[in-house]
Amino acid sequence: MKQPQQYIFWEPTASPHKNWLYEEFQSQVAPRRCKFFAHSEISAGRRRLGWPSVEQLSLPWTVAPTTELINEVVATSPDALHVVAGSSGRNKIVLRALKAKSIPFFIYAEPRCSDDGKGWLRYMHSMVFERWISRRSAGVLAIGINGPSWFKRVGFPGEKIHEFGYFVPLPEFQPRKDLEDRKLRICYVGRLIEKKGIRDLIYATEMLKEPAHLCVIGEGEDRGSLERLASSLGIDCEFRGAVPMNRVGQELAESDVLVLPSRSDDEGWGVVVNEALGAGAAVIVSNKAGAAAMIKDSRLGMVVAPYSSTEIAAAISMLQESALFSNEARAYRHCWALTNASCKRAAKFMIWAFTRTPSRERQEMFYGS
């Protein structure tokens, strides 16, 4: 592909996750220009969960661009590569404008949810109304373990598909000084709703032979029933509520293992997995979570089936018996995350994907093996 003279990013919302990645990307492609557009501000619900507002982000986001501005930006940027986060909402307007002007673009998106009874409708919609995107796009950054297979199913050629993820700054690593004579510390971070599978983790904690403390961070409609369940089982469980994003890393640094027991493939990635590995914690994720794509090394953690408290409990016990909660194992995970799952590594991969040519050898997936 011809070297773009500028990069223009189109997002549904001004996400802090993308902001950190794009900030690093911008530093690596300088002096080429980057522009950032978001069709909306972060929702009030996300703000209550500790997400920052657009005013608190480091990049100069243009929020809620009009249709006229979208068309003007596209028309005046023939030398740019546009990176479009999905094909729904107002990004449809962006894509139509790019199509009309034959300007190159990349898609950066999660797979559509296919396990809630409406998956076949989403598949048919993509095949009928969005097939042109697979033909006209320069490529797709496909989010998570289920991303590449989804985009292949809806018509993207294999050489255009790049398995990818979401990224945040990683916490500093500090060796734990309290590993002896204390309870195992398990952490969950996310919304407290049925499809996140937190109920399975609560039952798994009760199954453990060794005493454990479960710390639940997040809010959601199921909090009351989950608190009652934990109380009825008699487990040591603390519901912390929403925690600001800049404090999550410290919570993970004090944990032995993060568990992300998602029941639905609507879990596009799960960026808290990056943070946990960066902090040194082991991770257990269901195979529905996109970030399960990273967990191929048993020293990082384990992948389990959804809806399985038994598998979660067995995985926690296996990690503990294998001495994978030690400071040595924690340091290994931190170094692995810096090398494979950092914003710096991801930005470098993006540049490669955006500028590669068919004659260049295909690069390994961004997170290594």
Structure commentary:
It contains 14 helices and 13 strands. It has 369 residues and is α/β, with parallel strands linked by helices. The chain has two domains: 176 residues, Rossmann fold, CATH 3.40.50; 156 residues, Rossmann fold (3-Layer(aba) Sandwich), CATH 3.40.50. It has a seven-stranded parallel β-sheet, with helices on both faces. It has a six-stranded parallel β-sheet with strand order 10-9-8-11-12-13, with helices on both faces. Helix 8 packs parallel to helix 9 and helix 11 crosses helix 13.
Could you list some keywords that capture this structure?
single chain, 369 residues, alpha/beta, Rossmann fold, 2 domains, seven-stranded parallel sheet, 14 helices, 13 strands, 38% helix, globular
Task: Please tally the helical runs, counting DSSP H or I stretches of 4 or more residues.
Answer: 14
The amount of beta strand, in percent, is 15-25%
The overall number of domains is: 2
Whole-number mean pLDDT: 91
What string gives the helices and strands in order?
A: EHEHEHEHEHHEHEEHEHEHEHEEHHH
Structural class of the secondary elements? alpha/beta
CATH superfamily of the largest domain: Glycogen Phosphorylase B
- State the end-to-end CA separation: 27 Å
User: Main sheet: which strands, in order across?
Assistant: 3-2-1-4-5-6-7
Report the major sheet.
7 strands, parallel
Shape descriptor = globular
CATH topology call of the largest domain: Rossmann fold
The low-confidence runs, each spanning 5 or more residues with pLDDT under 50, are none
Strand segment count: 13
